[in-house]
């Protein structure tokens, strides 16, 4: 679409989206649609006379292949009876499509809204169940192959691109003198990642964002990992590192109640995971570097999305930055 004014991000008219869903999906009579969540992508809540659905409108940073891989994997997990969000195919059987938005092509996919699930306080019990569910997801994904080539959770995505955002933003702040230290830790993590082989028992599709906001629980206390927008091929130890990182950073935006000490929660999570999949000594050796890689990705996330999210999402106090430095120091001691 040609525009005289360059556009980086647009909000699609919800009635237009409702009409698209009506034309493309056999979901019954549509009642209404609401803009539900604005994050890395846009999510709309749709109500019909029978069910509720989430329409994901992906941002332009995710290519056709990026989205194709994600929905391909989710459809595979649905077929394997792994508890997660359920992808809804279109009338023609395809899983996603694109529209020509002002800023360029944006992909869309429809998911069944998962009812009767909720966040729970983080305890020994919920941590164990979360670890077990993640191991089941990894184990079931061993044979998974996709025709789509999504970005991988390796050096470029986890370290190089985030560092650009970190440098660009923090050079303007009082924390700029700390940037060389961040780069030292980044170099350490890069050396580790580049030394690894892609052993099929250790490397495969990763969730990529296994923090507490993305795991919900059924009324039967089963854990369900949601929100695969950060997924990609990578070493599965990265998903473990993401959980550990979240436990140590405790970002306030998750609104999670921590009812047990960190050590109890972490051990329970690992026990749950290892009830399905073992973690060998080599994975534990590289684990600290994956936590560092996750931290660098997180530090670069907001600076690299300022144009969409605005500077109000940045931590002016510097606490988020300094907390990561302290975590990196602890991991290196």
Q: Could you characterize the architecture of this molecule?
A:
This protein is α+β, with helices and mostly antiparallel strands and 333 residues long. It has two domains: 14-115, Phosphorylase Kinase, domain 1 (2-Layer Sandwich), CATH 3.30.200.20; 118-332, Aminoglycoside 3'-phosphotransferase, Chain: A, domain 2 (Alpha-Beta Complex). The protein is 43% helix and 17% strand. It has helices at residues 14-24, 64-79, 124-140, 155-170, 179-195, 237-249, 262-274, 281-301, 306-309, 319-332, and strands spanning 30-38, 42-48, 52-57, 86-88, 97-101, 104-112, 117-118, 203-206, 215-218, 223-225, 232-235. Strands 1, 2, 3, 4, 5 and 6 form a six-stranded antiparallel beta sheet that branches. Strands 7-9-10 form a three-stranded antiparallel beta sheet. The protein has a two-stranded antiparallel ribbon with strand order 8-11. The radius of gyration is 20 Å and the shape is globular.
Task: List the SSEs and their pairings.
Elements: H1 14-24, E1 30-38, E2 42-48, E3 52-57, H2 64-79, E4 86-88, E5 97-101, E6 104-112, E7 117-118, H3 124-140, H4 155-170, H5 179-195, E8 203-206, E9 215-218, E10 223-225, E11 232-235, H6 237-249, H7 262-274, H8 281-301, H9 306-309, H10 319-332
Antiparallel strand pairs: 1-2, 2-3, 3-6, 4-6, 5-6, 7-9, 8-11, 9-10
Helix pairs in contact: 3-7, 4-5, 4-8, 5-8, 6-7, 6-8, 8-10
């Amino acid at each position: 679409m040609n525009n005289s004014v360059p556009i980086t991000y647009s909000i699609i008219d919800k009635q237009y989206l409702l009409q698209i869903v009506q034309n493309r999906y056999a979901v019954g009579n549509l009642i209404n649609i609401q803009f539900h969540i604005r994050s890395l992508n846009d999510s709309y809540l749709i109500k019909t006379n029978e069910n509720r659905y989430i329409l994901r409108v992906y941002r332009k940073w995710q290519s056709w292949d990026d989205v194709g891989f994600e929905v391909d994997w989710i459809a595979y997990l649905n077929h394997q009876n792994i508890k997660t969000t359920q992808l809804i195919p279109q009338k023609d059987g395809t899983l996603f499509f694109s529209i020509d938005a002002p800023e360029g092509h944006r992909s869309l996919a429809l998911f069944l809204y998962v009812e009767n699930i909720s966040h729970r306080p983080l305890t020994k019990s919920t941590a164990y169940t979360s670890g077990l569910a993640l191991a089941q997801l990894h184990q079931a994904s061993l044979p998974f192959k996709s025709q789509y080539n999504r970005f991988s959770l390796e050096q470029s995505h986890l370290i190089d691109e985030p560092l650009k955002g970190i440098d660009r933003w923090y050079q303007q702040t009082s924390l700029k003198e700390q940037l060389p230290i961040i780069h030292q830790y980044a170099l350490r993590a890069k050396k580790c990642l580049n030394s690894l082989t892609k052993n099929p028992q250790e490397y495969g599709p990763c969730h990529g964002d296994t923090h507490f906001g993305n795991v919900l629980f059924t009324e039967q206390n089963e854990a369900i990992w949601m929100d695969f927008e950060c997924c990609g091929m990578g070493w599965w130890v990265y998903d473990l590192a993401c959980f550990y990182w979240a436990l140590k950073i405790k970002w306030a935006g998750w609104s999670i109640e921590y009812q047990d000490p960190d050590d109890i929660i972490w051990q329970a999570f690992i026990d749950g995971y290892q009830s399905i999949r073992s973690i060998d000594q080599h994975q534990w050796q590289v684990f600290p570097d994956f936590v560092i890689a996750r931290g660098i990705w997180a530090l670069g996330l907001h600076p690299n999305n300022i144009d969409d999210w605005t500077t109000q999402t940045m931590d002016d106090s510097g606490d988020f930055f300094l907390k990561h430095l302290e975590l990196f120091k602890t991991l290196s001691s």
